[in-house]
Amino acid sequence: MVGDNSRDRAGSFASSAETAAAEDHHNNNNEKIPLTPITRTGKGRSSEDDDDLEKLRSPDELDIDGYDNENEEADSLLRREPDGAVSAVATSQPAAPPPSNFTTSLLWMVINTLATVGIVFTNKAIFSDPSLKLAQLTFACFHFFITYLTLYTISLPRFAFFVPRRASIRDILPLSIAMSLNVILPNLSLAFSTVTFYQVARILLTPTVALMNYMLYSSTLPKNAILALIPACFGVGMVSYYDSLPSSDANIKTTTSLGVIFALLGILASSLYTVWIASYHRKLQMSSMQLLFNQAPVSAFLLLYIIPFVDTFPVWTEVPVNRWVMIMMSGGFASLINISQFYIIAQTGPVSSTVVGHVKTCTIVALGWISSGRGVGDRSVLGVFVAIGGIVAYSIVMLKEKAKQAVAAASQERR
Questions:
Q1: What per-residue string of b and e applies to 172-200 under the rule 16 or more CB within 10 Å gives b?
Q2: pTM over 0.85
Q3: Which of 112, 341, 397, 411 has the least CB density, counted as fewest CB within 10 Å?
């Protein structure tokens, strides 16, 4: 469940990374942010490192822990805030990333892509069961627990992916509530819509976060980037319209009105989470993994108090064995996304991360289209191409902008 991501958020936890997460996790200039080791007392950071931490990277998916494979490439290229906020996944690099190795990097990118695609379709299959469709909070709680367990494991000295730090419940509570909405609403969207619509709709994370950044921080995008987002939004609108039309063919899967509503609410929740988490990086001086390490258990305990009043439970003894296997697989995919994202952040550049994000988006949309039973001549296919074409064009513009900024910075240093 848990992310994009954004971009990647991926139908469940994938929607926080991708908002998480995460699908892609660099600053607004798509630069890797070096962090000195953070001691358990919070010291050991130089003023130079603080300056780096203040730089904001640009969803999806949103997306570390598989929150939403969902449009991680959009997250990674978007946000710039004049007051120096840091994004949700910009600083999830550990103090000492492993040495770069092409084979290892490629392997982890493949694992991340397969896990992101797997979590979307696994969650869709789980939510297709009427007895589990309305147990969303329970499912989210399970994923939060899996995420915490994964982060706890990789923080142990044996692995030392990051140094855990603690924050008070009072400090982390608002962000944990936002995190829960960021996961639950996209999951509900996936439960009541097709995979194609769900994934294409996550493209709206990019313009929504851009709009929020402009309203809150007066942060602007290059003119060409804004122009590229117009067809992206138009394409999502076309898919929303045609995919929700009733079909006389029972084999063709369609999106319900509830699916569209939950998708839009999920976009707002994921975008707000993406923007809001930046202030928590500055306030608590934590990396994304450290923040998530604190958020996940709090979110899980919060949901435990609400689950009895909201969820409709199935008769657990009547749940087929294959559904239990899928639930375990979903948790496993979330863990793989968490771990692989660490290597992707540490070892790949902005172009590689962007390509991986687009590959995940296109793969999920293509497989979703095939499983929906729609033909190639269906009119919503045009909206898919327009939306994806727009977000790819946006990514290219932002990468070129980053290159220009790098050249300008180099010339200033020579002076």
A1: beebbebbbbbbbbbbbbbbbbbbbbbbb
A2: no
A3: 411
